[in-house]
Specification:
Keywords: Phosphoprotein. This is Response regulator rcp1. This protein is α/β, with parallel strands linked by helices and about 150 residues long. The chain has a single domain, classed as Response regulator (Rossmann fold). Helices cover about 40% and strands about 15% of the residues. The protein contains 5 helices and 5 strands. It has a 5-stranded parallel β-sheet with strand order 2-1-3-4-5, sandwiched between helices. Strand 4, helix 4 and strand 5 form a beta-alpha-beta unit. It is globular and about 35 Å long.
């Protein structure tokens, strides 16, 4: 059967790596609007992301995410470095990473794909377009494709 949906036994886990409180809250609201069985986990920067993925305190009980939504421009460790580290790790590299950022510089887009981002999406400024974008991300990653951590 093509595609899949989150199973009733385990919600879909999404890790949002975002340093902007307002963008993080908008993303949370956009997913809530989708009414899908999912858990949105939020970390503030690349270091927290790697700690979450490595289950380092305070993330000892963290689930392995089915999808990572990654901002590029963050303090301490930016998204570019996170991409390099996650995609360079044999255990973590199968986790799909969608770069979700405000910047659309050609060099950033090319670098993200060179570092094996699975998608690069520019955040729209308009609220309804942002909600629609999150719906498209949800439809594709949670309903259309088969993911390595679901099964």
């Amino acid at each position: 059967m093509p595609g899949h949906t989150a199973t009733p036994t385990r919600p879909f886990d999404v890790l949002l790596v975002e340093d902007s409180p307002s963008d993080a809250e908008l993303t949370r609201k956009a997913f809530q609007r989708q009414r899908v069985d999912m858990r949105l986990h939020h970390v503030w920067d690349g270091i927290e992301c790697l700690n979450f993925l490595g289950r380092v305190d305070p993330f000892k009980e963290a689930p392995r995410p089915d999808l990572i939504l990654l901002d590029l421009n963050m303090p301490r460790m930016d998204g570019r470095e996170v991409l390099r580290k996650v995609k360079g790790d044999q255990e973590l590299c199968p986790i799909p990473i969608v770069v979700l950022t405000t910047g659309g510089e050609r060099s950033d887009i090319l670098e993200a794909y060179r570092e094996h981002a699975n998608a690069y999406v520019i955040k729209p400024v308009d609220l309804e377009r942002f909600f629609s974008l999150v719906g498209n991300i949800r439809n594709f990653w949670m309903q259309t494709v088969e993911l390595p951590n679901r099964g």
